[in-house]
MaoC family dehydratase (Streptomyces qinzhouensis), 151 residues
Amino acid sequence: MPLSPSLIGTRYPEFRTSAERGRLRFFAQATGQHDPVYTDVEAAVAAGHRDLPVPPTFLFCLEMDNPDRGKFLRDLGIDVRTILHGGQEFAYHSPVCAGDELTFATEVSDVYSKKGGALEFIVRTTRVTRAGEPVATLTGTTVVRDPKAAR
């Protein structure tokens, strides 16, 4: 099913979530962050942070808190068995720490195909704010494989 460029600009409903200390510690340990600023509040404050800082890429985990994260693919009739993770980028504008209440606003920023339509790409841009101020921009690419395309 070819994806239409008219999808560009499609927005998801915004949602809010917070960075919790327990999840930050678990993520830091699971990803091998050995710097105590990621697990010890005193070390974080001594290093100049307000609280435990969000480790790199953790905002992707918070983005997954979206209560209806699969709605967009369902609305397009895309079978999740045909999707691949095509990439992600993070641009930080301000530090994020434990306790921060964050708002995630996502829209489709590009749609294109390769290999004669065998692979279609959906690029989403998520703007993350705290009290209305930008803290990060996340860019994620989903690849949709056409199961009927010759390999």
Summary: The domain at 5-145 is CATH 3.10.129.10 (Thiol Ester Dehydrase; Chain A).
